Amino acid sequence: MFTTHFKMARQPFLERAPLDQVQKDERIAQGLARLTYLAQEGTLGVLTGPSGAGKSTLLSLFLHGLPSNRFRPIYLYLTRVSATSLLKMIVTELGDEPRRGKDRLFLQIRERTKTPDLTTLLVIDEAHLLDPGVLLDLRLLISSALDKAPPLKILLAGQDALRHTLKLNTYADLANRISIRFHIRPFNPDETAAYIDHQMRAAGASDKVFDPEVKSRIHDFAHGLPRLINNLATACLLQAEAQNAQKISEPLLEQVLVEFKLP
Predict the structure, then answer these.
(1) What's the mean pLDDT in 9-33?
(2) Does residue 263 register a pLDDT over 60?
(3) Angle at 212 (CA atoms; ends 258, 188), nearest 5 degrees
(4) Cα(57)–Cα(71) distance, rounded to whole angstroms?
(5) Where would you tag: which of 5, 35, 110, 132 has the fewest CB atoms within 10 A of its CB?
């Protein structure tokens, strides 16, 4: 294993790294600030970003940091379902048996979330895949004018298409209720280099293993997306171990990129 070859304590570029090992870069810090505001003061939030940019990492950090005595998070990601099916999933996650009829499901959700000392936060991941009818139904869950404080908060997370959907006139009423919007962007070149260096040092290895030119090429090929950066860096380390190399040079990277360019 390349961890032994480079005298590492762990794999530096895991898809799902332990939360205490996540580098809290500027993007993550800004995202956490907005999501924390949603939890404390907002009602509806939207988190977007390209696939592999770090939305899941940001969500994990946010949900892990919520005080369990104040918040009840519900995380759903199976979004290719009907509006009724999604409502049933919410009711089930709230610990109740779904009733028949959409009107009864709405009432169940309202009843189960009206707890004075516990705020329910519904996180819907892959929200760009939601059926249009689902978005309209979600609006009804947070649109009561009689509630002094919303018993339910909603966070929609998805790819860029979600932003374009919410700009449509059909969803104007929903969009007007959005308390926070955050778009997590890919790394810029300096951030990619800093990320690779940080991950190597955190794993107990030298941050000089990857040549500067290699880090720049990895950024360009991955378009700054952390997930693809992880995959490329891991492949480079595997290739280096196979060749008994101690440095990741451009010729070695070229060998790796041949594999990644395959259809």
Answers:
(1) 90
(2) no
(3) 85
(4) 19
(5) 132
Q: Which residue has the tokens 């990741």?
A: 248
**Fold type of domain 26-183:** Rossmann fold (3.40.50)
Extract the tokens encoding 17: 């790294």
Q: Do 177 and 43 contact (CB within 8 A), yes or no?
A: yes
CB 69 within 8 A of CB 50: no
Find tokens 């955050």 and name the residue: 182
For 120-158, b/e burial (b = at least 16 CB within 10 A) is bbbbbbbbbbbeeebbebbbebbeeeeeeebbbbbbbbb
The per-residue DSSP string of 179-244 comes to EEEEEPPPPPHHHHHHHHHHHHHHTTS-TTSB-HHHHHHHHHHHTT-HHHHHHHHHHHHHHHHHTT
Residue 233: is its pLDDT beyond 50? yes
Looking up tokens 């008994």 gives 244
Q: Are 203 and 52 in contact (CB under 8 A)?
A: no
With 50 as the cut, is the pLDDT of residue 56 above it?
yes
| CATH architecture of residue range(s) 187-260 | Orthogonal Bundle (1.10)
From CA 38, how far away is CA 166, in angstroms rounded? 18
Encoded tokens for 124: 């819907």
3-state secondary structure of 119: strand
- What does the domain layout of the chain look like in residue ranges? 26-183, 187-260
**pLDDT tier at 145 (50, 70, 90 boundaries)?**
very low
